[in-house]
Write a structure and sequence with these properties.
28 helices, Rossmann fold, 10 strands, single chain, Helicase, Ruva Protein, domain 3
Length: 722
């Protein structure tokens, strides 16, 4: 049995379907708060208005300021209902009387909302003020709400000044603006001003959760966090994005769909970067970048989100209670122990500066991956130790490096008196790289050394020479390579000979002159520099016990005479004597001896301190050492070093106690520096080296010829001593 419908019935049916579709109301309008109790995130404004309504202390003009979507229009409508509710002036309007329902429906004759962006002239303002003198038609008060009031012209502001100052008893003004700086002070002085805050992300997530539960829409909590972050403090933007997410997910709000919709980087990408960074897996980090490029995700947003995540991890380290979201706290808790607090600060700087440098990079992918490589390059952890397994960790926060079996060896042994000492101020004694035994057959056990220290001395035995000649004189060796290396960040120290080309080691003869340390054979040096099993960039050369012991005596004697402090790797500590082959080599610095002679600068270098603790120690003056305690003094100028790191003194105390093998209390007082701090001494030596370099250049014949012939000028600031 069938039915045939005419054209009129089809038109009526189409109209019903269309009216049903048009009846949908967006979430931002449907869930607009109707009372102060349902308002989200503006408690300070609600408190002031409710107290004023309860006590009857009603002003005649209010000014609400804030960014878009924070509740300016919503509060004005609630306030209008509170003033005109049929139950009386109350902070809790009933919402069911004719006045309340009419204001909610925007058809109350005594509540006027005017858009100052389109009615900004003096004529528009004059027309509004002419109507203000008449009594209300239905309500108790006439309420004029002027939105974006800063768009009014200067003449319009002047026209409303008198009425705004002394309006009729039945008139109330509510002004709203997103730019209060453009409002004349004459208007500001006539209003009660309330600054509406941006919505915290937690409040937005809670509000969206309640709405979705009421709407019976399935959702994932992670998706709401992305929506709240994209809303940037605006509740209206968050509700608009929620509408879009529901439509995009076909009635569901899922995290993956939301990240695709917003084009943002998901948390999984960020945590994958951190996992790869903690493991030192560069290919894994680049794989994350490749996946982001394949999905056309924003690298700028990725660096922004990475900086935010690093901030949250640092926050969890210092103030765990600040992370209120249990799910977020559980996820970032594992990274709190993986990264040092100081490295997190550096990683945060790398992320935000990498974002600034994206426009300067060849492309966004290159800029992003370069930021990832920087994060890996500046990690404090060293690669796994090479050489014999089971090497003990020493110094450097538990990081150790062991000398591989392929270390440079020589055929002839040097006498104990051949241990070189520093030829000039600021240089440190160094042990010679010599081990007795036949060439190619190393003797003695593999030596395990602590992590590289901030500065390393250089053996003077390394100098270019012909195959048949003996070693070059000390002056030539000094010119061939720098005597000392500049201070570097712990974990990234390299010996000065790392920067020398392989040709500098060519032609080393296996012989030595009288009183000179033995040279390095060219073939073994080349193999040590070119084979990955024995890189010289991370390890100091081995030394026989006799040479190391002699170097230790010379270094301590130099310290006692006021000479320069020995550098890590420059002296031996006196465990020699187990055999002539150099059995039982010991750590190369005696901190206790340095403490005895009050060489604070040498102690700092021997400990291998880094970061803020090194800066603090460098600017402290040695006051004295008593039984179980060390007294230091810090100038008021550098007080920020203590304020920035409250536990710096405790960490310095732990480092000293661990190095000495017994507890040591460190006390730091503030005051005027009477002597010389290590930082001041370093600066004086730097200036002296710079002056010597400038003098050497000025006396150079070629430079003098350039100056005399071409009237050239030597730019002293560009001179870098080596």
């Amino acid at each position: 049995m069938g039915f045939v419908f005419g054209d009129r019935f089809r038109d009526v049916l189409s109209a019903l379907i269309e009216s049903s579709a048009m009846s949908y109301q967006v979430l931002a309008r449907k869930w607009r708060p109707k009372s102060f109790g349902t308002l989200v995130g503006q408690e300070h404004v609600v408190r002031a208005l409710t107290h004023a309504l309860a006590t009857g202390r009603l002003h005649h003009a209010w000014l609400f300021t804030g960014t878009r979507g924070v509740g300016k229009t919503t509060i004005s409508r609630i306030l209008a209902k509170a003033l005109n509710c049929e139950s009386g002036i109350t902070a809790e309007p009933c919402g069911v009387c004719d006045a309340c329902r009419a204001i909610d429906a925007d058809r109350f004759p005594d509540y006027v909302e005017m858009d100052a962006a389109s009615n900004r002239g003096v004529d528009d303002m004059a027309a509004l003020l002419d109507k203000a003198v008449y009594a209300p038609v239905q309500g108790r008060y006439k309420v004029y709400m002027i939105d974006e009031v800063h768009m009014l012209t200067g003449h319009a502001f002047n026209a409303m000044l008198k009425t705004l100052e002394e309006p009729p008893e039945h008139v109330k003004f509510i002004l709203a603006t997103t730019d209060p700086q453009k409002i004349p002070v004459t208007v500001l002085s006539r209003c009660l001003q309330f600054n509406l805050k941006q919505m915290p992300q937690g409040h937005i997530v809670d509000h969206l959760t309640r709405i979705l539960q009421a709407e019976e829409v399935p959702f994932e909590p992670g998706a709401l966090r992305h929506l709240a972050k994209a809303a940037a403090g605006s509740m209206r933007d968050a509700l608009s994005l929620l509408d879009q997410a529901i439509a995009h997910g076909a009635g569901r709000v899922e995290e993956e769909q939301v990240t695709h919709m917003l084009g943002t980087v998901g948390d999984d990408h960020l945590y994958a970067v951190l996992d790869a960074l903690a493991a030192g897996d560069v290919p894994a980090m680049l794989a994350v970048a490749d996946g982001m490029e394949a999905r056309s995700l924003s690298f700028d947003a990725a660096l922004q989100a990475l900086a935010t995540l690093l901030h949250r991890i640092a926050l969890a380290q210092f103030a765990p209670s600040a992370i209120v979201d249990d799910a977020e706290r559980a996820r970032i808790e594992r990274y709190v122990g993986l990264f040092d607090a100081e490295y997190l600060q550096l990683a945060y700087q790398i992320a935000i500066h990498g974002r600034d440098e994206l426009p300067l990079a060849p492309d966004d992918y290159t800029g992003f991956t370069m930021a990832l490589l920087r994060l890996h390059a500046f990690r404090p952890e060293l690669p796994p130790a090479l050489g014999s397994p089971g090497a003990a960790d020493q110094g450097g926060g538990g990081r150790a490096a062991s000398l591989p079996a392929a270390a440079p060896r020589v055929t002839s042994a040097a006498p104990a008196s051949a241990a070189p000492t520093a030829p000039a101020t600021g240089t440190m004694p160094a042990a010679t790289a010599a081990v007795t035994g036949e060439r190619g057959a190393p003797s003695g056990p593999v030596m395990t050394l602590p992590a590289p220290a901030p500065a390393v001395a250089v053996p003077q035995a390394v100098a270019p020479a012909s195959p048949s000649s003996a070693l070059a004189p000390p002056e030539a060796a000094a010119r061939a390579m720098p005597a000392t290396a500049s201070a570097r960040t712990p974990g990234h120290d390299v010996p000065p000979w790392e920067d020398l080309p392989p040709e500098a080691f060519a032609g080393q003869a296996p012989q030595a002159g009288a009183g000179e340390p033995p040279p390095w054979p060219d073939d073994e040096v080349r193999s040590a520099r070119t084979t990955p099993e024995a890189p010289l960039s991370r390890y100091a050369p081995a030394a026989p016990a006799a040479v190391a012991a002699s170097a230790a005596k010379v270094a301590l004697a130099s310290v006692a005479d006021g000479g320069p402090a020995p550098m890590p790797g420059g002296t031996a500590s006196g465990q020699a004597g187990k055999g002539e082959a150099g059995d039982g080599l010991a750590p190369v610095t005696d901190i206790a001896a340095l403490m005895e002679v009050a060489d604070w600068r040498g102690v700092i270098r021997s400990l291998g301190l880094g970061g803020m603790i090194r800066e603090l120690a460098q600017h402290c003056e040695w006051l004295g050492r008593e039984d179980g305690s060390l007294r230091l003094r810090l100038s008021h100028t550098h007080r920020h070093l203590l304020d920035m790191n409250r536990n710096a003194a405790e960490r310095l105390q732990e480092q000293l106690g661990a190095a000495l093998g017994r507890p040591l209390k460190v006390s730091i007082t503030l005051g005027d520096i009477a002597g010389e701090t290590p930082a001041q001494r370093d600066e004086a030596e730097r200036r002296a080296r710079h002056a010597e370099a400038v003098a050497a250049l000025e006396s150079d014949p070629f430079v003098r010829e350039l100056i005399e012939r071409f009237d050239a000028t030597l730019v002293e600031a560009s001179v870098r001593p080596i």
